[in-house]
Amino acid sequence: MSFKDKYWKTVVDKFYAFKGTMYNGEWPTLRETFEITQYRYPDNECFKTITPNLVSYTYTEALKKIKELAYYLVKSGVKKNDHICVSGKNSPEWAIVYLAIHFAGAIIVPLDYAFHPNEMEKILSFGDVNTIFMDDDKIDLVDPNSTFIKTRYSLESNKKHQYALDLIGEEVTLPRLECDDVAAILFTSGTTGTPKGVMLSSSNLMSSTLCCQRIFDVFPTDVFYAILPIHHAYTMTAVFLETISSGACCVFGKRLITPIMLKELKEGGVTMFLAVPMLFNKLLAGIMNGVEKQGKFKSGIIHLLMGFSGFVKKVFKVNIGKKLFSNLLLKKVSLDKMRICICGGGPLPAETFKKFNQLGLDFVQGYGLTETAPVININPSEVYIEDSVGIPIDGVEEKIVSPDSEGNGLIYVKGPEVMKGYYKNKEATDEILSEDGWLNTGDVGHIGKNGYLYLTGRAKSIIVTEGGKNVFPEEIEDKFQLYDEIDQCCIIPYLIDKELKSEGIRIVIHPSDKYLESHSLDEAAKHMEEIVEEVNRDLQSYKKISLTTVVDTPLPMTSTKKIKRFEVIRIYKDK
């Protein structure tokens, strides 16, 4: 039995058994998904917060709140395909409102809570939104005199605006939903140009959600942790929707503050931890620093045991690391109850992937983009390859277009996860989505003989060097991720020859706050140069960094902790 087939029965048990009774489409809608799960696991915990206060809803309690709010929206005049925004910190209220909007037949517009009010207003106007649900500290920053925002509700209780969960309507017939109807529109920042709103149907979202479970197992006893912003496609699908499709529980974390996170992981009994490379790198650094503090002899033994554990896990498929390191190392960072860690949202060092598996955690790396709802590849925990993002999930086709001499080319994908298009932007849609359904991801990579996908970088980030060679910044940045002294780094081009338009390779580094506490910026700059020299020794000549800039202010980042590369280029272009 293949690793895919092993878990297929789980998916059949969850949903295919209900086809023809509780849903009729190729995939269930979000509403059907939640109703099926509530039918199967009515008393399971569904949504939960640990801090600042313990709040918990079972599936039955959550469904009651969702329907009451959906009834209210319909009674208040909300019609099918109206656009309603939800924007706020991760919370059970956010999740209940998100689902209630869908139950009422409207299209959900989840917005990044970190957006400046001006950005929000532009997107809300472009997105034809007339009703908003927001946390109270932002709700009135969106122009109170706006002519297009008709109604505002708060995601927080005891505030001046009506609290979302106090809105209770009398039972009415809810609109009929089809799996191919647009369920959500996910917008990028709208500061420049036309905002891009990715239109995702229930089919897009649920195919991505359920097909992931053909590669890694999810149980109704699992507890997911939503610490990254839930408006983002990664958290929305791989945490929120995976939770409600499996009868699991979702613990909502609101702030990326280590002590609070460790408390939530421990007290929530989290078993499924999804995060970005930066977070996993920091957790690993904390673990390994603790190992080194035990002295050369003890740390040497631990390293030997880790190597042995990784060998046994990879070759014999037996996980001895969890028993070896649970109390010794994992408990200190609240990872002792963890079953699976999943990394997405950016390139991960192979060494990080390797070490987490050596420690006894099933560490899964995935790949995708908002336009694919978002998951298209996952590295199976049973047959993982550290430097790959894994195999396509069920139903996804992939091909490499215009490969170079090393086999790297543009990655195109096709499948049920691919978006319906960009909202009110046919030109942008036609640029990346062909009539026969192939989507240009904008990423560059190659497919190995084993069918595993290997990423090189983003096509639009390519640096063309003096010798005409193409360099992918992500490949070089990857080499710096495990240096504790470095908090952020970004590889950008600088112009060497205006006529030839050839570029050199520059790195902008922000040292860690801890390092800057005990070293001056000049001392830090000298040490960073030494690290760059060390990395350069292992790089091909055309990839070597020739200019280093060390800064004492953090580089601009998105809410999902990705560095805004083109903003860094703009800031440091002439410095």
Helices, strands, pairings?
Blueprint: H1 3-14, H2 30-40, E1 45-49, E2 55-58, H3 59-75, E3 83-87, H4 92-103, E4 107-110, H5 117-126, E5 129-134, H6 136-139, E6 151-154, E7 182-187, E8 197-201, H7 202-212, E9 223-226, H8 233-246, E10 249-252, H9 258-268, E11 272-275, H10 277-292, H11 295-316, H12 321-325, E12 340-343, H13 350-358, E13 362-368, E14 375-378, E15 391-392, E16 397-401, E17 409-414, E18 421-422, H14 426-432, E19 439-447, E20 453-458, E21 463-464, E22 470-471, H15 473-477, E23 486-497, E24 502-511, H16 513-518, H17 521-536, E25 547-550, H18 565-572
Parallel strand pairs: 1-10, 3-4, 3-5, 5-6, 9-10, 9-11, 11-12, 12-13, 24-25
Antiparallel strand pairs: 1-2, 7-8, 8-18, 13-14, 14-15, 16-17, 17-19, 19-20, 21-22, 23-24
Describe this structure in words.
With 575 residues, the chain is of the alpha/beta class. 34% of the residues lie in helices and 22% in strands. The chain is built from 18 helices and 25 strands. The strands form six sheets. The chain has a nine-stranded mixed β-sheet with strand order 2-1-10-9-11-12-13-14-15, sandwiched between helices. Strands 4-3-5-6 form a four-stranded parallel β-sheet, with helices on both faces. The chain has a four-stranded antiparallel β-sheet with strand order 16-17-19-20. Helix 13 links the parallel strand 12 (340-343) and strand 13 (362-368). Helix 2 packs parallel to helix 8 (233-246). The longest helix has 22 residues, at 295-316. It is globular, with a radius of gyration of 24 Å.
